[in-house]
Design a protein that fits this description.
This protein has one helix and no strands. The protein has 95 residues and is mainly alpha-helical.
């Protein structure tokens, strides 16, 4: 497919998956926790949260587990970097 066809197809996919009926807007409150699986979702952080009266603190966590498999049955491959192997990590409740 040509670059133009590729761009149009990608635009069509993005237009479809960002329709309101396929999106979730999380309402942040003190003590809220949200998580999602980037293998199956598109995450877009909102830029209209500056008015919140509390800080929004983010931590990135990558879970070890099965390698995702596409609809064609092929296993995903890492494009950049190598797997990070960590035994177990626990947060200190005093933090």
């Amino acid at each position: 497919m040509s670059r133009t066809e590729n761009r149009l197809l990608l635009e069509m996919f993005i237009e479809q998956v960002t329709r309101p009926e396929y999106t979730v807007r999380f309402r942040w409150e003190p003590g809220s926790i949200a998580f999602w699986d980037n293998r199956a979702t598109i995450h877009h952080a909102p830029n209209d949260i500056d008015h919140l009266p509390f800080p929004r603190i983010m931590y990135r966590v990558m879970l070890a587990g099965d390698i995702p498999v596409g609809v064609d049955g092929r296993r995903s491959e890492s494009i950049v970097g190598s797997p990070l192997h960590v035994a177990q990590c626990y947060a200190d409740p005093a933090d």
